Amino acid sequence: MMDGMMMDPSMMVMMCIMMYIGAIIFILIVGATVYVVARLLMMKSRVVDRPLMMLKERYVRGEINDDEYLRMRKVNNDVK
User: What SS3 string covers the chain?
Assistant: First the structure.
């Protein structure tokens, strides 16, 4: 038997356990990164143009006509 080539079974079990723990930690880090990036992208896409929403609400309620809506929307877009 070669002492340098043989591994104690308990040492092999410990190495396997450490590999599994490392894999779990890696998966958790990747998952957390994906979650944070997805949340940031979702929040960025949720930015709402409040003046445009109010203008649309007024148009739907019939407070302004088509021409006023289009003119005010153009002004709103030009201001940005």
Answer: CCCCCCCCHHHHHHHHHHHHHHHHHHHHHHHHHHHHHHHHHHHHHCCCCHHHHHHHHHHHHCCCCHHHHHHHHHHHHHHC
- As a whole number of angstroms, the distance between CA 27 and CA 19 comes to 12
Report the distance separating Cα 51 and Cα 53, nearest Å: 5
Tens digit of each residue's pLDDT (9 = 90 or more) over 32-61:
999 999 998 887 766 677 888 899 999 999
CA–CA distance, 31 with 22 (Å, rounded to integer): 14
* Both tokens assigned to 5: 């080539």
Residue-wise pLDDT tens digits, 2-18: 555 677 889 999 999 99
